[in-house]
Design brief:
This protein is α/β, with parallel strands linked by helices. It contains seven helices and seven strands. Helix 6 links the parallel strand 6 and strand 7.
């Protein structure tokens, strides 16, 4: 697992690669951590370099996490630089995925990426984080949507409180996922879908339940169904 663009180590070591506020200061998220700029191809090369070293020492899969733009407060004030004037967030993340896959395939490793579950059907969320479910699936070996019921708003899929309906939420999300992947022609590359499921209790919600074996099993059943 390689945390891609939420990388305070690289951002602090090389501030020129960090996300910057319009006043030139380094952007920091709600937890005080710096992110690197996905528009910088130097960042791409760094991440691919780390991945190649992981492959060299024996890992058979590279899983990119935080392969997206930050959604924290203050992002509206971030200056992404000249590169962002003509290229969208989705185009940038997709281009990185394509580049990373081309660079890493000769290493004999599988390449996967974690994405928000909501981007499967929500174009608004996709634009905010820069993740296109279909476009990324054209290159990755595995796409891993985080279809945690707790991460969906009340009313999503006509469920009053999604955290209380793990089976129904995951079933709907996986059905939508299958429909999106099916839009990629059969003779082209398609990622295998390997979802992340919820095994934690979202006690910060107003309406939540304790997640134990039964709730996890319901999600697993939904994936198979």
């Amino acid at each position: 697992r390689i945390v891609a663009f939420k990388d305070p180590v690289l951002a602090d070591a090389m501030p020129e690669l960090a996300l910057k506020n319009q006043d030139g200061s380094i952007f920091r998220d709600n937890s005080g951590q710096a992110w690197v700029n996905p528009y910088k191809t130097e960042v791409w090369d760094y991440l691919v370099g780390v991945a190649k070293e992981a492959a060299r020492i024996g890992f058979n899969e590279i899983n990119f996490d935080y392969i997206r733009f930050s959604t924290d407060a203050g992002m509206s004030e971030v200056d992404f630089g000249e590169e962002a004037e003509e290229v969208s967030k989705i185009e940038t993340i997709t281009a990185f995925v394509k580049y990373a896959c081309e660079q890493l395939r000769p290493c004999g490793v599988y390449i996967s990426a974690d994405v928000y579950g909501a981007i499967i059907t929500s174009s608004v969320d996709a634009r905010i984080v820069g993740q296109s479910y279909m476009d990324m699936s054209r290159y990755l070996d595995y796409i891993c949507p985080m279809v945690y019921p707790s991460h969906y708003g009340d009313g999503y899929y006509n469920l009053d409180h999604p955290d209380l309906h793990p089976y129904e939420l995951v079933l709907n999300a996986m059905q939508d996922s299958a429909e999106v992947i099916a839009q990629i022609p059969e003779d082209e590359h398609r990622a295998t879908v390997r979802p992340w499921l919820q095994d934690f209790t979202a006690s910060w919600l107003r309406y939540y339940q304790t997640y134990e074996a039964e709730e996890v099993r319901e999600q697993i059943d939904a994936v198979y169904d």
